[in-house]
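Hello support,

Our group uses your service weekly, and this is the first time we've seen a run hang past the timeout. The protein is LD-carboxypeptidase. I'm not sure whether the cause is the sequence or the server load. Input pasted verbatim:
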Amino acid sequence: MTQHHEHDHHHEHHAHQHRKPGGIYLISPSGAVADAATLDLARQRLADLGFKTAVDRTALAVHERFAGTDKQRLAAIARSLKQKHPIVMATRGGYGLNRLLPFIDWEQVAASEKIFVGLSDFTAFNLALLAKTGAVSYSGPTAIFDFGAKKLDELTASLFVESMHQELEILSFETQDADPVDARGVLWGGNLAMVASLVGTPYMPKIRGGILFLEDIGEHPYRIERMLTQLLHAGILGRQKAIVLGRFTEYRLGAADGGYDFPSTVAWLRSAIKVPVITGLPYGHVKVKATLPIGKKVGIATEPGMAHLVLEEHF
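Update from on-call engineer: The timeout came from a worker crash unrelated to the input. Re-ran successfully.
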């Protein structure tokens, strides 16, 4: 029930702690953009929210399923570091970043101090940057899926704007199913398939005592469980302070499932680890999504029916 996602506005304006959001540079590091008109609409919507935008010159390139050749997409990332806008946003997800990871100069990415935002396939970029440099980036809306949608979700837009202003202090959300927890740790994660794909590689962050958040789309519950077992057997799940589940959407059960559905996956997860599990995070391939800082130390606490993610703490 998306209308119940609330976020608390504790707007204490500490001028020195808040960035002006500035402009957004749009790149296509993964899948090809199917319809240029959706990108135009996204730019208009972002302008309405106060963001100037610039589009990378190969953002609409097409090579096979990708937004241009590997070389073109790497060049776009390199250009994004040198241009003037502080925020760099992926136009869309898809597939294609994993094959680029060895060829990206991560120190240069971190040194640029750009604010990177994307979802889905972009998880590979978020996590590689964290693993290699410790720099914070964001998992959140993409230009086309969110800002280029037929109808812009206002909560997604306001959560994005507040995150870019560093004004989203507490993200509170309804949860039907949360273990009690009150903890602090590094927030990390993203798309489950992408997280699992990085296990055993130099691009997997080594996070102990973290808060791991996950989502996925079009993955059957048993496949979700299989990816979670990979993280479990690799020792990753057991080292966290909390596992926060976003939305797992667009799958169809078959006769062979015998009643095994996503709640069965969650029940198995709880039986397999002692780490608290929290469901209901407004995040994933869904209309209402939070913008979440990957690599930042945050707090998480639950009470009956509610969970609170403390994103900005003022000491």
